[in-house]
Structure formats: structure tokens, C-alpha cells
Write a structure and sequence with these properties.
- Keywords: ATP-binding, Kinase, Nucleotide-binding, Receptor, Serine/threonine-protein kinase, Transferase.
- One of its GO terms (molecular function) is ATP binding.
- This is Receptor-interacting serine/threonine-protein kinase 2 isoform X1.
- By secondary structure, the chain is of the alpha+beta class.
- The chain has 3 domains: 88 residues, Phosphorylase Kinase, domain 1; 218 residues, Orthogonal Bundle (Transferase(Phosphotransferase), domain 1); 116 residues, Orthogonal Bundle (Death Domain, Fas).
- 44% of the residues lie in helices and 12% in strands.
- About 15% of the residues have low confidence.
């Protein structure tokens, strides 16, 4: 595995946050290309995150396939008691499948079917070509990246496991894409059927152009999926006049069957997705050209910065965050209302609440006009805002009520641990959503934390 020499990376810009640390866009002198760097900073006495990153490195190095994001190199840098280690991947200028539908809600059908087929091909490689096979455990639109010509690149192997008898399993993923058997049993051992179910939900998302359960409480999702609830099929069937949508809907329902043993394998799925794609032969190039042209126009109009790569921050997992197990414990208590805005499970968060709660009723007002380019303003002041650890208990409900954040995104932020992590995730999400969301966040920040806003560096 190639290691980049010290000082190799230029123009490093934070573009998001993953489960192990920040994600950067940079230029590699050695590789001569723009890259994405997923970086972990290891303190001398804490090696857990680094161990997880090493596991992801090994899985990515092993999974070398056309529709799986390639690991290009590794990055290392020592600074006193801290050691930085990172995974270097090709930068995806168009972000993820989630980004694509946010920008172009009416993605051409030929491109939708190509995306579904390429996702199925990538998963077939992980399941049926690799020995031992890999179970992804977090297949969703945010983890389906798109390269320069909108070909699929599966990413985020932070939760993935190889299927060997000696493996230690942990259930992870994003609630909306997790199968019922994983939600019913905390001792569940992930199988290939886990990913097939996720593909069924992803298919619904691609065909409907929506996120599943976007306004549903996380606890309710966990309660109702094992009872047979699924995203509304009517949102797909209303497009039944479009070529191959009925066939895709049929495959979707087979994939999300409540009984794991009844779900098809990905070797079965690719036969169906290939036959559907053939019906769009001759239309694919035009569909890709149309989508790329519209993306270019949007980027020009919005003067948009770099698109974000897929991040494992958008996960609700079992692990150190305790999000999944915490939800299971809550099931026996209540399914009414949204989960608490700030988790009391984290000492850092609760300390921050105690430190700031007494100030909420006596906040002074300032005159604040959001900068013309709010996204760039947030990027420039990213570290300052994060390290200030502003109390977000009043900001998050406003972002949720104004539909800037959906329930899944809110749950991810709540389960991200410390106040710094919560703030970091909020910043990443509002920048990813665009100018309007960035402006609204800054307005709320000025309303609740005027001194912090006054201290920020102007563009």
C-alpha cells in the first residue's frame, strides 16, 4: 500500500466528518490528482478509532472493483503525542446519490436504472466474488458516491465485516435501511440478507426520489419495521407508466421481505437489474449528459463549493455512541414524541448544558446580517464554532421544525456523543444542504450565541 510522503497534500479543506474524524479535500503531489482524505487523530493512550480505521483500510484494499471506491494510499503524520493516520481515496466531485436527488429531484429514469444496476454489481462483488465475502451493513444513498461521469462508487466500510467463523459481529447501520431481524435481536449476526434488505429500501428511494421515513420518530421506526411496515409502495407505483418501474417495484418488495431467507441474493438481483437496464439502451448516454449539464448549471448558479463525500457520520450504530442500544432500551418506555435533542448519556454534552442553560433566558440581541456566501463563511470559521461548543438545544428544534433537518438526520446528531461532535455534524449537514440552510443556521447561532458570532472572522 502506497504511503504519501510528509508534506504531500496541498490545499486541504474540511468537507465533512466521518466516524473516525474529519474528511478533507486536498491535492496530492505524488498522485497528481484531487483526493479525499479520511483522517483519524490518535492520542497516545487511545487507539480504538485507529484500529477501526485500519480495519476499514484492509477491507477497502481487498475490495478492488469497478463500482467500489478504491483506496489509493495511506497518510501518516506525527505531531508530538498525536499521530494522524488517514485513508486516501479519489475525490468524488458530484457527492453521493443523496446529493444527486437533492440537486436534481427528477433524475432521468435511464440514469436511475443504471445506478441501481451498478449498486447491485458492486454488492454482488462483495458478497459472491470476494473470499471471504464482505457484508457492508450500511448500504444507503449517502454511501453510494458518484464519480465524474456519475458511475457508482460504493463507500464507507466502517461497519463492514468479513463473513468468517472467527469474526466478531456488531450490528450497525442507519435505522431506515436496517432489516427487521437486526432490530429485534441485539445479538443478531449480520448476514448477506442484511444488505439485500438495504438494497430494497435504497431501490424505493431511487424510484420515489425520497428518503424513507423522513418525518418518523426513530423509536417508532424500530417498533414498526419488525411488524411489517415499509415505505409507501404508492410513492413508487405512481410512476408505473415509466418503463420497467413495475419490475423494479417487484424486485424491491422481494428484497425487503420480512423473512431473510426469502430475499433474493445479489447474484439474482443483477439478472433483474441488467434486464431492466437493457430496456433503456440508447438513452443512458443522453441521461448522463443531461444530469451532468444540470449539475454544472446548478454549481455555477450557487457558486457551490466542493460536494461532500459519503460520511459515516450519517449512521446510527451500535458501538461507542450507544445509539442503537439506547433506542432499544427506550422502546419499552415510550414511542411518543421525538427523542431528546441533547443526549444526557455523554458527560461532555451534559456539562455543556449545565454551563449554558442558565444563560438562555438572558441572551442579548445583536444585529446580524448573514454573509452573501454563508457556506464559505461557515467553512472559514468551522474550527472556531466547533471548539466553542455552543449549546444546540434551541437550534436543533428550529432546524427540524423548518424541515431543514429530517428525523434521521436529527437522530444522527443526537447520537454523535460530545457537544463538539454534535456541533461538527450540524455544520457539515447545513453546508451540504446549501446556501439557504447555512444562512438559517447562522441566524439561529446569532440569536442564541451572539458573542460567538461576533468573534467569527469575516470573509
Amino acid at each position: 500500500m502506497q504511503r504519501l510522503p510528509p508534506g504531500d497534500l496541498d490545499n486541504m479543506v474540511v468537507v465533512g466528518e466521518g466516524g473516525f474524524g474529519l474528511v478533507y479535500r486536498a491535492w496530492s503531489r505524488t498522485l497528481g490528482m484531487e483526493i479525499a482524505l479520511k483522517k483519524c487523530v490518535q492520542q497516545r493512550h487511545d487507539g480504538s478509532k485507529l484500529e477501526d480505521l485500519m480495519k476499514e483500510r484492509d477491507l477497502m484494499h481487498k475490495a478492488n472493483f469497478t463500482y467500489v471506491l478504491r483506496l489509493l494510499a495511506v497518510y501518516e503524520n506525527s505531531n508530538g503525542e498525536c499521530r494522524e493516520y488517514g485513508l486516501v481515496m479519489e475525490y468524488m466531485p458530484h457527492g453521493s446519490l443523496h446529493t444527486l436527488f437533492n440537486k436534481i429531484p427528477d433524475v432521468p429514469w435511464a440514469l436511475r436504472f443504471r445506478i441501481l444496476h451498478q449498486v447491485a454489481l458492486g454488492m454482488n462483488y462483495l458478497h459472491h466474488v470476494l473470499v471471504p465475502p464482505i457484508v457492508h451493513q450500511d448500504l444507503k444513498p449517502r454511501n453510494v458516491l458518484l464519480n465524474k461521469v456519475l458511475d457508482v462508487q460504493l463507500t464507507d466500510f466502517g461497519l463492514s465485516k468479513t463473513l468468517t467463523s472467527a469474526s466478531t459481529y456488531s450490528t450497525g447501520g442507519t435505522l431506515a435501511y436496517m432489516p427487521p431481524e437486526a432490530l429485534e435481536d441485539v445479538n443478531y449476526k449480520p448476514s448477506k440478507a442484511f444488505d439485500v434488505y438495504s438494497f430494497g429500501i435504497l431501490t424505493w428511494s431511487v424510484l420515489s426520489g425520497q428518503e424513507p421515513y423522513s418525518d418518523v420518530n426513530s423509536i417508532l421506526i424500530m417498533k414498526l419495521i419488525p411488524r411489517g411496515h415499509r415505505p409507501p409502495v404508492s410513492e413508487v407505483e405512481k410512476w408505473a407508466a415509466e418503463k420497467m418501474v413495475p419490475q423494479a417495484s417487484n424486485l424491491m418488495k422481494k428484497c425487503w421481505d420480512g423473512q431473510a431467507e426469502k430475499r433474493p441474493s445479489f447474484s439474482d438481483c443483477i439478472q433483474v437489474t441488467q434486464s431492466m437496464l437493457k430496456e433503456y439502451a440508447g438513452q443512458i448516454d443522453l441521461a448522463v449528459e443531461d444530469a451532468l449539464s444540470r449539475l454544472k448549471d446548478l454549481n455555477t448558479q450557487e457558486k457551490q463549493g466542493p460536494s461532500f463525500v459519503g460520511l459515516s457520520a450519517a449512521n446510527v450504530t451500535t458501538g461507542t455512541s450507544g445509539g442503537f442500544r439506547h433506542c432499544l432500551r427506550m422502546l419499552n418506555d415510550t414511542i411518543d414524541g421525538p427523542p431528546p435533542i441533547v443526549s444526557s448519556a455523554s458527560p461532555d454534552v451534559s456539562n455543556n448544558v449545565e454551563r449554558t442553560a442558565g444563560q438562555v433566558n438572558s441572551i442579548r440581541k445583536i444585529q446580524f446580517n448573514a454573509p452573501k456566501n454563508a457556506k464559505e463563511f461557515i467553512k472559514k470559521n468551522f474550527s472556531t464554532i466547533v471548539t466553542a461548543r455552543p449549546y444546540v438545544g434551541a437550534i436543533l428544534p428550529a432546524l427540524f421544525s423548518e424541515r431543514i433537518f429530517n428525523q434521521e438526520e436529527l437522530s444522527v446528531i443526537e447520537s454523535s456523543g460530545t457537544a463538539e461532535n454534535q456541533t461538527r455534524n450540524i455544520l457539515v449537514d447545513v453546508m451540504n444542504k446549501g446556501q439557504r440552510s447555512s444562512v438559517r443556521f447562522l441566524e439561529l447561532l446569532a440569536e442564541h450565541h451572539p458573542s460567538l458570532v461576533e468573534s467569527l472572522v469575516p470573509l
